[in-house]
Each structure stands twice: as structure tokens, then as C-alpha cells.
Amino acid sequence: MTIRLERQDGVATVTLDRPEKHNALGLSDAQALAGIWRGLRTDRSVRAAVVTGAGGRAFCTGIDRDAVAHDGAVPQPHAPFAVEDPLLSIGPKSNDLWIPVIAAVEGMACGGAFYLLSEAEFLIATEESTFFDPHTSYGMVSAYEAMDMAQRMPFGEVARMALMGTAERISGRRAYETGLVSELTPVGGTLDAALSCARVLASYPLSAVQGTVRAIWAAREAARNHARALAPPLIALGNLSPEQQAERFTGRRGDGPPRMR
According to the UniProt record, where is the region Disordered (predicted)? Predict the structure, then answer.
């Protein structure tokens, strides 16, 4: 299993378990994640959730390009008004789950990982955690990712992250300073800290907690939904072809280390 689900003390722990691939997601992983969130909607034993990545080196690095290439390219509509994105529905809110979800981030979190992080109620990370968005470096529009993270980060921060691509990474400390991360722990401590918070939430009356989650999200959904409606044509018009993206991806593997801030 590349996605693990454990339940204890009213808390579900969802672990991305492909540490050898930095917990990158293949097509089957994306489907499994969506299925887990949908399943938790009717699981009365679970009242809060934590999502994390195995291995310590990465929370998630988005889509596994090698796996997608092996499975075959995702067919795209013939008009720029819709886009087939295999990671678009991997988050809990996209699957209509309204229990609180906490993200425990160790190591790297980039690109498609933001679909998960943007749909968590809050993030816990370490100073050594790093966040970046590689899309522009590979000739791709950062649309959904940037739009979702713009709901969580100051405008200038998300603009710089989305535009600078692989040249820069945001440290856990900087993410904490800008409000993306709510707590910093020592390396290896994010899961325990997240579980501690989740157990508190699970001990409260379920309807009060879910109602509060829904209220918080209602305050941001109008802007988020309006922005997302613009994403497909921006992606269709701005992306390089898959072949050109692959060339840039291969060519940039030899680049020097990114700047950390």
C-alpha cells in the first residue's frame, strides 16, 4: 500500500507511503486518497484527521511524472475550458469531508502537494521543512496550486513562490513567519504534535467542530471558486507541450542547489 490509513482515539492518520519517491503520487495513489476521504465521511469512529508523509525527507512532491508516463498520459479535453488534473480531487474538502484535517510536514512539500496542504485546517512543520512550486521552471502554469495557496499566504509570498519555481525554497521558519505554518517542531516531531491537536479536536462535540470548519471555509470559498473557474484556460494557453515539459524537467536535474529563504 502506498497510502496508509490508521484509526485511533477518534483520529484517522493518512500517510503517503512512497518514501523512495519522496511520496510523489501516481494515478492510483490519487484515486486512493480521494477514496479515503470519501470513506471517512461516513466513519462515525473518526472525528479528526492528520495527513503526513513517510520517511522524513518529504511530505509530498506532487505528481509522479514517471508513474504517469508509465500509465499513459492523462487525456485532455479538446477545448481550453476544462482540464483533466489527476490531483485536483485528492484533498478532503474536494471530497466533501468536513472533519478537521491537520497536515504534518517533514522535509519537502512542493507542487501538487499544495492540493493537500491547502485543504488542511492548519500545518505543522519543522524549520528544515521546505516549500516550493516548480511549475514555471518546467514550462507549466501554476494555476490551481497558486490560487489555493493564495488563500493561505500573503500575496507577495505566494507570487514569489509560484514564479521563482525551482530556484528558491521557502524554509519552515519563513513559512511560520508568514502564517502558512502554525507551529514548528524539532525534526521528527510534526506527527506527534499534529496527533496531539487532533485528539483534542476529536474530544469535542462533533457537530460543533464540523460546523466551525464549515464556517471558516465558507468565508474563503467564494474567492477560491471564482479563481478556480479561470484555471483551465490559463493552463491550456500557458503550458508547454508534455514533450517540452519533459525536456525541461530532464535538463534541470543538473542545476545547482536552490536558494533558501
Answer: 241-261
Please give the span between the terminal C-alpha atoms of the chain, in angstroms, as a whole number.
35
Rounded CA-CA distance 77/211 in Å is 37
Q: Which amino acid is at 136?
A: T
Asked if 154 and 261 count as a contact pair (C-beta separation under 8 A), the reply is no
Q: Which residues are 60's β-sheet partners? A: 109
How far apart, in whole angstroms, are the C-alpha atoms of residue 183 and residue 202?
19
Three-class HEC string of 202-213: HHCCHHHHHHHH
Residues β-bridged to residue 48: 11
Counting the structural domains of the chain, the total is 1
Write down the pTM of the prediction. 0.87
Structural domain including 122 reads: 3-187+200-207+227-260
CATH code where residue 241 lies = 3.90.226.10
Per the CB < 8 A criterion, the answer to whether 47 and 10 are in contact is yes
Residue at 68 is within a domain: yes
pLDDT tens, per residue, the chain with 261 residues: 699 999 999 999 999 999 999 999 999 999 999 999 999 999 999 999 999 999 999 999 999 877 655 555 666 677 777 777 788 899 999 999 999 999 999 999 999 999 999 999 999 999 999 999 999 998 989 998 999 999 999 999 999 999 999 999 999 999 999 999 999 999 999 999 999 999 999 999 999 999 999 999 998 877 777 777 777 777 777 777 777 777 776 766 657 788 788
* Structural contact between residues 95 and 87, judged by C-beta atoms closer than 8 angstroms: no
- Residues counted in the chain: 261
